[in-house]
UniProtKB/TrEMBL annotation:
<protein>
    <recommendedName>
        <fullName>ferredoxin--NADP(+) reductase</fullName>
        <ecNumber>1.18.1.2</ecNumber>
    </recommendedName>
</protein>
<dbReference type="GO" id="GO:0042167">
    <property type="term" value="P:heme catabolic process"/>
</dbReference>
<dbReference type="GO" id="GO:0000166">
    <property type="term" value="F:nucleotide binding"/>
</dbReference>
<comment type="similarity">
    <text>Belongs to the ferredoxin--NADP reductase type 1 family.</text>
</comment>
<keyword id="KW-0274">FAD</keyword>
<dbReference type="GO" id="GO:0004324">
    <property type="term" value="F:ferredoxin-NADP+ reductase activity"/>
</dbReference>
<keyword id="KW-0560">Oxidoreductase</keyword>
<dbReference type="InterPro" id="IPR039261">
    <property type="entry name" value="FNR_nucleotide-bd"/>
</dbReference>
<keyword id="KW-0521">NADP</keyword>
<keyword id="KW-0547">Nucleotide-binding</keyword>
<feature type="domain" description="FAD-binding FR-type">
    <location>
        <begin position="17"/>
        <end position="124"/>
    </location>
</feature>
<dbReference type="Pfam" id="PF00175">
    <property type="entry name" value="NAD_binding_1"/>
</dbReference>
<dbReference type="GO" id="GO:0034599">
    <property type="term" value="P:cellular response to oxidative stress"/>
</dbReference>
<dbReference type="InterPro" id="IPR017938">
    <property type="entry name" value="Riboflavin_synthase-like_b-brl"/>
</dbReference>
<dbReference type="InterPro" id="IPR033892">
    <property type="entry name" value="FNR_bac"/>
</dbReference>
<keyword id="KW-0285">Flavoprotein</keyword>
<dbReference type="InterPro" id="IPR051930">
    <property type="entry name" value="FNR_type-1"/>
</dbReference>
């Protein structure tokens, strides 16, 4: 069951009181573990779709000195580079230093955003290809929420395949709504049509497609389901964003298909980023 609630305003007026403050313009709660939110975008902030930034809130005062300092964490920007606002897709860790607080933000509140975007899940880190795979689990969908709305994705590739694996069906909902909205998007709808394939799976709750993406790759079920040939370094490129365990397993599988890991400085056939540490 999805317990989706959204609060939005078009009139939130930023009155910055924090360093690098941005104002929250909308918050959507997807489940008791996941929410997304949008904030104002600093005019000077330029980034490449797929990159991440440090965001946060002021921490609690130090009991000895009474001073507070920013509590910052890495977050993928889930909105594309052309968007007027910035979107983030977040976990709620009940005892997490940041997200125990961040999950309570409301429209008009401020967050801290350090305007220094970085990351490897960018088109520049890949050599040209025919087909691109975005492999994600959990909040690892966030950088692909950006790249799926980026026109360059459809200019550079004939086919775009996005896989998203979560424990439960409700945890797929943010991604599902985003993907389903793409074909009607006034900016990129026409570019997306016929190119995008969405492959959601669950590992715990019953759904139409169950199981880990690593198993579906190893067995070849993914290729059969999608009607595409097995991954090859001549045609296929991949971006991966999940837990460290998933990333390592996928690296091994992709290298087994002959893909090499790329970087901004040395583009190749696949790139990886952690969705979180730990
Ligand atoms: C490059 C990078 C990009 C990131 N992008 C995002 C993002 O777009 N959205 C997001 O929610 N988080 C993202 N994270 C994780 C984020 O930085 C924080 O860890 C998260 O917000 C929790 O912060 P916290 O202070 O509440 O708890 P922390 O002390 O940071 O984490 C507590 C524990 O919670 C678990 N955890 C943390 N983050 C997640 C997560 N996303 N999914 C599942 N379990 C988690 C880990 O086991 C961790 O040890 C990213 C991390 C990195 C390194």
């Amino acid at each position: 069951m999805t317990e989706q609630t959204t609060v939005t305003t078009a009139t939130a007026k930023p009155v910055p009181t924090l360093p690098d403050a941005q104002t929250v313009t909308s918050v959507t709660h997807w489940t008791d573990r996941l929410f997304s939110f949008r904030v104002t975008r600093p005019q000077s902030l330029r980034f490449r779709s797929g990159e991440f930034v440090m965001i946060g809130l002021m921490g609690d005062p130090d009991p000895a000195t009474g001073r507070t300092k920013p509590l910052l964490r890495a977050y993928s920007i889930a909105s594309p580079s052309w968007d007027d606002e910035l979107e983030f897709y977040s976990i709620k860790v009940q005892d997490g230093p940041l997200t125990s607080k961040l999950q309570h933000i409301q429209v008009g509140d401020e967050i801290i955003l350090r305007p220094k975007p970085v990351g490897t899940l960018v088109h520049d880190a890949l050599l040209p290809g025919k087909r691109i795979y975005f492999f994600s689990t959990g909040t690892g969908f966030a950088p692909f929420a950006s790249l799926l709305r980026e026109p360059q994705t459809y200019e550079d590739y004939d086919e775009v395949i996005v896989t998203h694996t979560c424990r439960d069906v409700a945890e797929l909902e943010y991604g599902r709504q985003l993907v389903e909205g793409l074909e009607n998007d006034p900016l990129i709808g026409e570019m997306v049509a016929g190119k995008l394939k969405y492959y959601p799976t669950t590992t715990r709750e019953e759904s139409t497609k169950m199981g880990r993406i690593t198993e579906k790759l190893k067995s070849g079920e993914l290729f059969t389901d999608l009607g595409v040939p097995p991954i090859s370094p001549e045609t296929d490129r991949a971006m991966v964003c999940g837990s460290i365990g998933l990333n390592n397993d996928l690296k091994e599988i992709l290298e087994g298909f002959g893909l090499r890991e790329g970087a901004n400085s040395e583009p190749a056939e696949y790139v990886v980023e952690k969705a979180f540490v730990g």
